[in-house]
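question for whoever is on the cluster today: can someone run the full assembly for these? two chains, 867 residues total. i dont have access anymore since they changed the login thing
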Amino acid sequence: MNSQSYYQIQNDEYEIFQHAVQHRLPVLIKGPTGCGKTRFVEYMAEQLERPLYTVSCHDDLTAADLLGRHLIGPDGTYWQDGPLTRAAREGGICYLDEIIEARKDTTVALHSLSDHRRTVHLERTGETLTAHEDFMLVVSYNPSYQNLIKGLKPSTRQRFVAMSFGYPEASVEASIIAHESGIDEASAGQLVKLATDIRRLTDIDLTAAVSTRLLIYAGKMLKSGCPARKACLYCVIEPLTDEPTTRQSLLRLVDAHF
Amino acid sequence: MEEFIGKIWDRWLTRQVTSDFTSASVNLTDLQAELTLYYRALGGAPGKTLEPADARKVRLRRTGMQRVAGSHQRFALPWQDDRSVRLPASLAVFSSPRLNTSLYYWLVAMAARLPQVSNWFRDNQQAALALTSSYPGLNRQYKELVAELMALRPPVDDIPEDLRRRELAVAQALREPGLLADLPSSAFDCFPVWLWLYPQPPTLFSVPVATTGSGPELEAGERSSEQQTLQQRKQAQRIDDEHETDGLLVFLPDSLMSWTEQINLDRCQDDDSDDDFEQIANDIDLITVSRQRKATAAKVKFDLDLPAAENDELCLGPGIRLPEWHYRKGRLRPDVCLLQPLLADEAEPVSLPAHLRQTSEEVRRKFALVGLGNTRLRGQPDGQDLDLDAWIDEYSKPLRDTARQNFFLDQRKTHRDFCCLILADLSLSTEGYVSDDCQVIDVIRDSLMVLAEGLDQTRDDFAIYGFSSVRNSHVRYQLMKNFGEPYSDRVRGRIARIKPGFYTRMGAAIRQSSRILERQPQAHRVLLLVSDGKPNDLDQYEGRYGIEDTRQAIIEARQLGITPYCVTVDECGHDYLPYLFGRDGFAVVSDPTQLPRVLPRIYLNVSTH
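^ ran it for u. tokens below:
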């Protein structure tokens, strides 16, 4: 675990998370890509000195991937705990990143762990496991992400203490970028101004907003002497769009800023 | 011979007086998509579109040669109003295309910063100052453009004192924006300042002089290629024709000598198909339209164009009142629209037309692969359960491959919990031709049938409706297939009977469709809009009002958990559709004849992942 995690507290997220920990409540973090959800969870895990099991959810993530499965070894079959089961058994934070990406039947496996029961039934071994007192479930997703098939079921959502994250305020974001990338505050501020303009296009001309993470990448490149135009093109524009027209227009925007 | 000499003379004269660098000309249409995005990014109202500006009269002090050539009287100047940003259709101000392109971008940035010009001289300077101080790159760009522009300004040596003072003030304001507060007065306008926006004409407002495809003025059967009349909007004003004359309106005898000065013809009632109208309209600065639109001829044409509603369809009930979004007030106005559900109850059942059989077969085959229920996969490298058979098989082999461990059973759930409401635009613009013998409406009709064949195969529940409108009081909402109703020859019969007519009040149709979809039990509800153009109607729905209302209706649909998706054959769709449906919420089909083939594919892409 990285003991040097930097996280700038913006609202009351630290306080709310602490209260949730105290009452052993599961936490849901909503927010656009790259706004600092994962970093916050890492930071909290360090503060609480608990192990963190992060699972990046995807299309094919099954309940078995979370709970565990039988494997075949030299002496026959044996049971292997999944990250969720391990966190529940040994104590720790299980963080399911972008849970909306996981298959719906998978998220149902979380239900008994996320309510007052704090248990999980492992059908294949016949074991009903009661979670360790230090176990905590944290999930996150990006609400602007639209997919017809996917979506978090209301019955799943309503088991969590939910927090909405957004991109930080301009001055806070600039100081985060300056800290993370090592560039001066003025250049960081210019990157944030560019991001503010690009974010106006979110959900209209762009699917996703430009993340703080991408701005940090651009900042790092600027720091090492890469020209601003190139840094923004490769760290901000290209990751955002494949459309030649959009790309051209955004490049013009970069030219306006730098 | 005379004509030949005339042409040479004209060419020579034009070359003598022109101040444009025509070889370096840049067209708005080529940059439109980029500029629209740039405008939105810089904070311009996202509901506005970019349009070519009309030529406006400017009182310049002209040289003798310019007088002889009749040039330098009208310029397409950049300005904007609530509906759109008007930019010159092409720019040839500078000698290089790069600078002309740069000028377009600068003007768009100005438009985003300066939505309204009340004091032309002061506001433009303030906007330029604000832009250059907060955008270092724009500052450089501005300085370069100003330097180039200064070299092109007319000389100030031998012009009247008042005009000279004015010219110098403008030059200084360009170089050091924000320094001067007032523009010296002069009898003449100064030469167009290409870096500034011009005010919206206070007493004039813009109305379309020619519809681009869906007005009642459109003759039935008119080809789409012939509908490309005036691409740019004209300055226009409405006047009250108190005399209620049938032919000439308020007319001044001395203006009869020249139509370029004043032409008071009541075009509303003119049924003559004079080919020169377009040319004349192009040349006129200001078009005056009578408010007396109760013209009988227009009304008669209206009914002739359209199938009489009471003859072909059964009205279902007294109508449904629906709200409409007023973007200026920022609120919904309740019960503004009256929507009339209609049913073609006497439609003869028809079987699938022969020309669609092959496409339908293909689509059915594709759709058959979707939604097969649970699938159990054996011998997987990963899965929920052990595949003991696979394990025993592997272990019973004399030579075992220890690297491969495909001993798992995986179960994939592919059950579809879907419903879809297809909403087809049946406005008069669908009467346009996409090929010599095929109209947009034919393509839409075929597409609906083919898609319905596919949907029938997937067992996704679906409904098909069509819509058109005449103002807010008559939004026609035509039922072709309801949810729960089996897809049958009767439904095909109703689809086969759809006819184009009226306008496109999209918001009301979307709201009603959302209401229907909301009652569906499925987890995933799709509203698939098949359209051929922008929202538009006879009243204020034309332009930004319609776009904002449609956007609001789509937002409301999303809030109900419905996924709206638009498939359009409008090539200009890229300008306004991102604002309505979002980046991933629409598809533009560039070849409309392919729609029957493409629509099912789009549906599959949207509904499977």
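summary bc i know u wont read the tokens: Chain A has two domains: 12-164, 170-257. Residues 185-199 of chain A form the longest helix (15 residues).
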